[in-house]
Model the fold of this input.
Amino acid sequence: MFSQFALHERLLKAVAELKFVEPTPVQAAAIPPALEGRDLRVTAKTGSGKTAAFVLPLLNRLIGDAQPRVRIRALILLPTRELAQQTLKEVERFSQFTFIKSGLITGGEDFKVQAALLRKVPDVLIGTPGRLLEHLNAGNLDLKEVEVLVLDEADRMLDMGFADDVRRLAGECAGRQQTMLFSATTGGAALREMVGEVLREPQHLLLNSVRELNEGVRQQIITADDPAHKEKLVEWLLANETYQKAIVFTNTRAQADRLYGHLVAGDYKVFVLHGEKDQKERKLAIERLKQGGVKVLVATDVAARGLDIEGLDLVINFDMPRSGDEYVHRIGRTGRAGGEGLAISLICHNDWNLMSSIERYLKQRFERRVIKGLKGTYQGPKNLKASGKAAGTKKKKDKTGDKKAGAKSAPKRKPTTRPKTGTPSAVVSQDGMAPLKRKKPAAE
Done:
């Protein structure tokens, strides 16, 4: 029960109004130390309820201060506009019975309107790093008196190249009393470095291994011969699977556009999202998908980051993601909150080793599936290594390879001799090799 936490009665009233009864594991683990003011480093999978795990303690800190708003007291950084918008809604829902005001600053919106919002000095500021830095450089933003800094989806922010921006903004919050960093994965060296720089003696909470995907998600693979075969498989799946909403992931913008055109030609209601789409197009696509105007979204990873769409129950990997973490982020968009989902990866010969690596990373095997009538000739490698990857054939060593390997080179030929007299004829080397071309005499 949320009543077990030392939360202000107005926050508990909001929690009850929203029908939150049992805290999720991440909320049960993170809220108590966060209320104590501890710095936190939390790893929790997508859809685990981690937003409430930092929003409630943050609001609890601010609610007791009845001073007029003259400073921004809390800053929440997120990697995408969509995530920032969703977080703003959560903050507003939990603070509905308080006098705490929040504001949103992201790219793609009117800069002057945002500057006016900042002059009103919201208690809680939510935003994306790039646009916040623009306002900081323009003199519209003062973060010196921020008490709490939250970095949500920190691994995504680093993947998207925001490391320097995050450091700069964290440096502007030099007087902060608490920092909380949340991510869906344990990340790599860059994330560890960030943790070391921005957190002070943090409590580490590993709520799940990245390998623990949502339990309700079935994971399948279907082998394919080439991209054209994959397009036919996608069309069949969208026509025959039962789903409310679906996302098809590609690795490139060009492939996303090609697949989008193919599906539109097949009379599917579909939108495409990638890095070249502007904010207006992104908003339209997401709203139409949420409202049910379209059921299918074709997207690249960068464009789809931060999307939280209710009813999303089918994910198709047209291209296999390049890492296990990326796979987890894609698949984590379905099967949320106890729901069921289906994740299908289409595997050509050049996807197999990536797929095998991800299976090992997750410590599980994907279900193999064949679509009758669309079975291709490629059914996986003929020979497999113990790792599950394709066993390559040994290449024959050529002379160059032999030299590189330190092998003895062939003996040098003796210089050829040219007959002094007689009719022109082919010059033959003394070692009996093939005839050499003779130079024409100048007279000829």
In short: Residues 50-63 form the longest helix (14 residues). DSSP finds 16 helices and 14 strands in the chain.
